[in-house]
Design goal:
It is built from six helices and four strands; from the N terminus they run H-H-H-H-E-E-H-E-E-H. The protein is globular and about 55 Å long. The protein has a single domain, classed as Winged helix-like DNA-binding domain superfamily/Winged helix DNA-binding domain (Arc Repressor Mutant, subunit A), CATH 1.10.10.10. The strands form two sheets. It has a two-stranded antiparallel ribbon. It starts with a helix and ends with a helix. The chain is mainly alpha-helical. The longest helix has 19 residues, at about 130-149.
């Protein structure tokens, strides 16, 4: 029992849904992370018909992107576009895979860089900064202990 209490909780130790919800709430309450002006009108991908309904969708996407960068250092905008992409339904014709909107991903990563959560790699892509990794692990620990109670 004593070993578990001393061990630090990281992002890998909790479910994705729980972490993304907790980190999205943290970003929403943070004064450094701002919602863009265009967030209420933009679609998340070309295959979508409408913009997301939820008010917090941008914070949730940002938390999800931050988690992806944490788990896969060196991931770039192209890989994230592929991850958030999906099938475009074209009526009677067969479906085709379409990538997600890169502008949203880019704006999230730029804001995370301004917050010193992630940083660019010289070889391309992004990775978590030391401060960002500590921040995400701290929030993961808070979410983990809230789930236990």
């Amino acid at each position: 029992m004593a070993e578990e209490e001393t061990r630090g909780i990281c992002v890998r130790d909790i479910s994705a849904e729980a972490f993304i919800t907790g980190y999205a709430e943290h970003l929403k309450n943070s004064d450094k992370f701002e919602l863009p002006v265009w967030a209420d009108t933009v679609k998340t991908a070309t295959f979508k018909e409408l913009a997301p309904y939820g008010d917090d969708w941008y914070y949730i996407r940002a938390a999800s992107i931050a988690r992806k960068v944490y788990l896969r250092p060196g991931i770039g905008i192209g890989q994230l576009r592929k991850w958030y992409g999906g099938n475009a339904r074209r009526g009677a014709k067969t479906e085709h895979f379409r990538r997600a909107n890169g502008g949203i991903i880019r704006s999230v990563l730029l804001q995370l860089e301004e917050m010193k959560v992630c940083e660019k790699l010289p070889s391309g892509g992004r990775q978590m900064s030391r401060v960002g990794q500590q921040d995400l692990d701290r929030i993961a620990g808070v979410v983990y202990h809230d789930q236990e109670d």
